[in-house]
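Human: My hope is that you can spare some time for a protein that puzzles me. I am handing you a single protein, as its sequence and its fold in token form. Could you go through the record with me and say what the backbone is doing? Take your time, and here it is.
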Amino acid sequence: MDTSVTIIGVVIMALVGIPLYKVFRSNALNKTKIKEIMSKFPQCNFGLTESQNKKVLALDEQKKSFLLIDFNYNPEQSWFVDLNNVSACRLIPTTQGNSNDIVKIEFEFLYKDSTTKLIPFYSVEHDQVTQVCLYEDHELAKKWQKQIIICLSS
């Protein structure tokens, strides 16, 4: 009787413990990768940082720098923008055909020399379950666009 209870207890602990271990390990690896990528820009002090849906956004308001790290790509992708050379920022949602379904959201940075740079923020190809993350990512992109515009105006 005691042996079967012990076996059931060990199985339940394994069912709970293994996923928790994997989550904590993945989280620690991502934090290490974020620190490693941010250390490539020692001149910047990213005071404002936010992460959601395997994306990390960081803004240095003093030096006017923006960093986007996307862990949906393999290997992860990062984009750095020096906002001192940027005159405007806007979001470009791309829809599919005649429908209103958004398949891509990009940040567009208009530089003072009239060139533009597009940084992909959301792509339906990287959404594991079709458009589950779309609303959250779109709201996050709008929020960060406002933060960038405030940074550009100061």
